[in-house]
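Structure in, sequence out. Go:
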């Protein structure tokens, strides 16, 4: 079994929330880290049924248990009423809870008890390169990094099933949208604009719905952890900068399936788009596993200069190009950024054969960059 980076060390002394999109490996992680925990799985119909009819059963059952044991409630968003019982138990007993789920949306929507800050938030991401021995970059670009997909020789059917289950269990079952067919069309259009600046009007026109509905659909993706906003870096020195965020799905494999990208090889345009997404996906995970203490943004000027990722307060600027050799014209965005922010460290991530320095720009093959990232040599939370 692949060892995950997330260790939930806070659970040794605190109660925690563990959020993560479906199939990121939350349940597998909890079973590995806490084999002696008391476990309530709300996906089991019998467990869900009896606790739904009487949430107080949770308190009554636990009062006869050893209070040094951790209590795990999986898919907690399915039964928000349990959180009142959890709150009471956290206040009056020594139990520590791990509350696991794929979305906090339902908890907020029904104004559930969110425990007043008594449970620390953790987020689980798909696999990252640092977790995988003999990491295969080309396979990751094609399959994505969800565990079941990356470990499959051909993940295509699993990707299809993933979207189907998401629509049925996250969207339809929770009645998050009125028209499932329209939302399915929105997913396809959103995938076509993945890694681009969000334009609600254009997406609305393509889907045949209003811009306000599109905004609501994006909020659903954020709340169910299926997508991320990448904000713009907006500190302007000389040039006027774009301030609209970009959108990324949480895993490149999902985008591949929605856009019907298959069997991509380096050198193709599709591979280039997916390659950029994968690197940014790793940056999102690195930030998340470091407590969201590192700012992550992109930079683009009104005149068209762009940098794919800015880390910290202009500490590191990263350009991502799936080319076998970085050349001077690939670095125009980084050079423009350096004029605005002369102290920035400039990095280009590519398919170059070996690391090298070109003027002021550090050029790294993707796997070298990812190794340096996860070893803390690109940026650290304190940096």
């Amino acid at each position: 079994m692949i060892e995950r980076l997330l260790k939930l060390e806070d659970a040794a002394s605190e109660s925690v929330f563990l959020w993560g999109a479906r199939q990121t490996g939350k349940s597998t992680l909890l079973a590995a880290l806490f084999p002696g925990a008391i476990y309530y799985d709300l996906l089991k119909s019998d467990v869900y049924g009896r606790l739904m009819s009487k949430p107080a059963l949770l308190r009554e059952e636990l009062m006869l248990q050893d209070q040094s044991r951790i209590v795990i409630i999986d898919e907690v968003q399915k039964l928000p009423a349990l959180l009142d019982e959890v709150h009471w138990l956290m206040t009056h007993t020594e139990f520590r809870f791990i509350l696991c789920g794929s979305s906090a949306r339902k908890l907020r929507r029904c104004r559930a008890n969110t425990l007043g800050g008594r449970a620390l938030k953790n987020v689980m991401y798909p696999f990252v390169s640092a977790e995988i021995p003999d990491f295969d970059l080309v396979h990751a670009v094609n399959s994505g990094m969800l565990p079941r997909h990356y470990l499959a020789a051909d993940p295509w059917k699993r990707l299809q099933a993933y979207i189907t289950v998401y629509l049925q269990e996250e969207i339809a079952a929770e009645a998050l949208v009125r028209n499932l067919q329209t939302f399915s069309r929105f997913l396809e259009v959103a995938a076509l604009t993945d890694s681009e600046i969000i334009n609600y009007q254009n997406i609305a026109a393509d889907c045949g719905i209003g811009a306000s509905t599109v905004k609501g659909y994006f909020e659903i993706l954020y709340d169910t952890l299926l997508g991320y906003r990448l904000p713009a870096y907006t500190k302007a020195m000389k040039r006027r900068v774009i301030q609209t965020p970009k959108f990324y799905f949480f895993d490149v494999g999902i985008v591949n399936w929605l856009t019907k990208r298959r069997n991509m090889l380096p050198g193709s345009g599709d591979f280039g788009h997916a390659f950029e997404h994968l690197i940014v996906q790793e940056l999102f995970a690195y930030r998340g596993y470091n407590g969201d203490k590192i700012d992550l943004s992109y930079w683009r000027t009104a005149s068209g200069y762009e940098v794919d990722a800015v880390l910290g307060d202009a500490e590191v600027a990263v350009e991502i190009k799936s080319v076998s050799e970085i050349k001077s014209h690939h670095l125009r965005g980084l050079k423009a950024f350096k004029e605005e922010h002369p102290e920035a460290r400039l990095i280009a991530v590519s398919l170059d054969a070996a690391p090298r320095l070109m003027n002021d720009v550090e050029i790294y093959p993707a796997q070298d960059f990812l190794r340096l990232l996860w070893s803390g040599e690109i940026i650290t939370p304190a940096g």
